[in-house]
Every structure is written in structure tokens, then in C-alpha cells.
Amino acid sequence: MRLWIRMALVMAVVAIIPLVLMGIRAIQISTEESVRSSREIVLRDADAFATFVDTWMADQAQAVAGLMQILPVEGQSKDLQEALQKSIYLAVPTVVTVVLVDEDGVPLVPPLFLTEPGALGSTTEGRGAGSEVRASELIERVPLTEALATRSHLASAVVGHPYLPPGGTSVSVPVGATGPFGEPLVLGAEVSLEVVEALLREQASATHSVALLTSAGEDVIGGQHELIDAQRLQPLLTTRSNISYALADGREVRGAVAPIPRLGWSVAVVEPAEVAERAALGIRTRTTWVLLAAVALALAFGAVLARTVSEPVARLREVALAVAEGEYGRRAPVYRGDEIGELAEAFNHMSVRLKENEDALVAQQGEIEAFNRDLQERVEARTRELRETQQRLVRSGQLAAVAEVGAGLAHELNNPLAAILGLTQVLRQSYRGTPEDKSLERIEGQAERCRQVVSAMLQLTAGEVDPVQAVVIDLRVILRDVLELVKGSFRQRGVTLQLQEPDAALLVRIHPIYGSRILAQIFSSVRAGLEEGAILRVSAGMVGREVAIDLDPDRPVAIGSARDDWMASGMALWVARHLLDQVGGRLEEPLAPQTRWRVLLPGA
Predict the structure, then answer these.
(1) Which range (39-53, 205-219, 574-588) has the least confidence?
(2) What's the pLDDT tens digit per position in 264-291?
(3) Which long-range contacts (CB under 8 A, 24 or more apart) does 165-170 make?
């Protein structure tokens, strides 16, 4: 560092140390205050949402129970009981289905619901349609025991566990209401949370999430947002507090939780840490710029003072650089009586001595360079010889291992396959023209195919077949063969396999056995991670100059120990990737929340 710069820095440091200390303290205080304010704001938001949901749900429940206190229901005519259902249905706009059941859950009159959404201008405008299935689901979920246990001289209502009704698009809550007459009857109502859901979703965005969860961490509304981690939130859902946790992708999340004790639910409001701390970051940035400006001013003032000392040193530096470039004997024009003048005199003496020794150094340098070049050439030649020897040894070991495995496979597999083929052909002669002949023909065909697979595998491992130089074949043929091969295992697991066969030919340059082996390995690996009842859709087409085979399951494929054969599937995927790499293809696995697997092969 130059002398004048050091002097300027010293003067600047002495001037700005108090300002820096004050700035750092100001940043700390403002940051703490900003974070505290942000935590209070998000906690107030959670409280506000919790109060709204609690009040709204209490209003709906009391509205359902309100008409139960007019007159006793037990023993009344069916018409009067149906009129009571209709009155409550019309009085509470959020009710989708109403049932009147006894203490055993048996309906006293048919459930009341709309078969079609409410028409515009009618008293049921905007009301969702119900169904017999939804009514049956409501009867199952009405909290009968809790509602009957709260019977008193006043009408009361009990809110059940939220659920998504069959065919519904919004979460509903079962409400059980009893009157003040001590009757063993419960009025059940399916109350739609569409209003609450619309409010919460209106507040949600990519950087802000409002979710309604049960105390057990189950999603009621908004729990599927990428910022919500129900597993981490579950221990805190019964307390009013601020929260902080990290997502699986490493992002930090800040927020608050406010419980709704009467319902056993909680409201969670979360946002990324960078959003929550944006104000604090702005304060730190502005304060930092102020400090930098103060430092710049102090440096400028110090530089002016330091120039009077640094100019002689600068002239000495210029001469030193010239000497370094080979201008030996050059003198520095510095004439002073202080330490800088003594330094200039010593430098001039050194420059003269360097000129005297230059010729001797040049000669010695030439000799050393010649010796170094000769030594470098010898080292490089020896290194090349060692590398070539090592490559030959490794290749020899690989060829020996491949030859040994190939011989073992030929002996262990081809002999029994030949026996199977021979016996099958003999049996076909005996059963010619009978129904068993068809089965024997299929056995013979599959055995012959196994023999071709073994032969192709041995050729590949022995290096006799180059997959890149294989014949051009329509991928649809390979795809149909593979699907025919694996459909039995899919059917046994309970997974539906659907093929959308392309109209045009998809030409690839690959050995058929090689291609069948790649696709069979990948199909088997995907199947191992699907549950019973899943659907796997298979399609193929051109993507640029490549041929793509898409595997689209209707649900995510399990990974790791969740698979039925995860160790074998992992090896199968490794083999498939290895083979794809040899033919210039690749496998694209899905990233959550996507589920599509794609195999890409170079087009012919």
C-alpha cells in the first residue's frame, strides 16, 4: 500500500471511529426495532384472522341452533319437521345440507339440499348444490354425542371436524344443534367454509401465506402453500406465539400462530425471512451508505495532507520501475536531507551495482534455462509412458472381467434355455392342433427371446456391438414390446398402464435389445414406487432432434425405503442411466411437485 494512502487511512480512521461506533449501534437498535415491529404485525394479523374465523363460525353455529328453541321437534308431524329444516336452510346462507336425526343418527325426515346450484335472483342464489352422498357423509360426521351432551335449557350447537365433502370444491364443517327441550334429536348442518377460504386465499401470495389448521396439524384451508410446514408448526398450534423455521430448500420462514380454542383450530401467518426483514435490511443499507460517505470524505482530506510526503516517494518509485525494466545505472532525482533522501542515495548505488553484474547474470541464466528445458522434456516423456502403461493395464483387466462374466452367463443361461426350447418344440409336435399348442408356442417364443437377450448382452459387454452404430428402428415397436413385457407386473401391483401411441414413426438408432432393456428398467423402477390404484400414462414424441418418452403417473412416485424394492430399483435406475449414457440419451427425473419422468434418445 502506498505511503500517502496509509497516512490518509490513519487520519480517516482517527476521524471516523466515533461515527462508525455510533452507526453500528444505530443499525443494531433500528434492526431490532424493525424485527420486533414485524413480529408484532404478523402476530396481530394472525390474531385478527383467528378472531374472524372464531366469530364467523360461532355466528353460523348459533344461526343453525337459533330456530331449534322455537318449539319442540319430537313428536311433531313430518311436515313441521321438514319446515324446520327448510327454515334453517333459508336462514343460514352458508348451509349446503340439513338433516334431522335421532340419537342413533337415523334421519327423521329426508335430508334437505339443492340438486342444482341456486339460480340468480332466487333466495338460494350462490348456494352450492348437495347430493345424497354428501348428506350421508354429513350424517356420519355430525357430532351427535357432543351435541346431545350439551343439551340444556338453551339451544346450543357443536362444531365438528372439518372435511372436504364428496364432489365439493370447498371445505365444510358439520354442525350439530339441539334445542332447549331435552329432546334426543340433533339438527345437523353442513356449513361451507367458502367465505373463510376466499378471505384467506385473497391474503395469500407467493411471499405471504395464511393457513387454517387443526391442532393436530391437519390442513383446513391454505395448508398446501409452499411456505407452510405443518409438521414443524404442529407443536405450536395450541399457543399464541411467533414462529421461525427453515424449509426443505433452505429458505427461512417467519410468522405467527394464533389458536382458536373453541374450534380446536389455529391460524398460521408466514412469509419468507427476507420479506419480514426487508425494513431492517433497508435501514442497514442506508446507514452503511452514510458511513461509506463519511469514510470517503475522511480519505479525501487525508490524501491532500499526505501528498506533500508522498511525491518524493512517487519519483523514487518511477526510477525503481525503470530499473526493474532493465535500465540499470539510472539515478533518482531526489535531493533531501531526511530518511527519504538517504533511501534515494542507497537506491542509486544499487542501480550501478546491478549494471555491473548484468552480463554475468545473463550468461548464467542461459545455462540454467537450457538445463531446465532438457529436464522438463525428460519428465514429460516419462509421464506419458507411465500413463499409457496404466491405461493398457486397466483395459486388460476390464476385458478379462467381461470375458469371464460372458462365459459364465453363456454356460449358465444358454444351456437351460436350449433345453427349454427343445422340450417345447417336442411337446408342440405332440400337441399340434390342440388348444395347448398356442401356450406352447408362446413359451417357445419367450424362450427364444430370452436367448436373444443373453446373446445381445454378451455382445454388448464384450464390445462386439456398438449401440451408436446400431440399425435405425421405429421406437414405437420397442415401446409396444416393453409394455407387453411389463404389463403383467403392473397389473399384479394394481397399477393401470395407459399408452398413447404416436401417429408418426419415431426413428432412433439403437439396438432393439438395448432399447428394450433401458425402457424395461425405467418402467419397473417407476412401478415400484406407485401405490395400488395409480395410473401411469405413457406417451412419446419428438422434442427438437430428440425422441422423448414421457411417463406421467397421476401421483408422485415414492422414493427411498417407501418403495417395495427400493434397493433393486436404485440399481435398475443406475443401469438404465449407464446404458442411456452409452447411446447419448438421458433420464430426467421429476422435481416436486411435478411427477413426469422423461427418457430422451437421440433421433436417427
Answers:
(1) 574-588
(2) 899 999 888 877 667 666 767 777 777 7
(3) 165/96, 165/134, 165/137, 165/138, 165/190, 166/131, 166/133, 166/134, 166/137, 167/131, 167/133, 167/134, 168/96, 168/128, 168/134, 168/192, 170/128, 170/194, 170/197
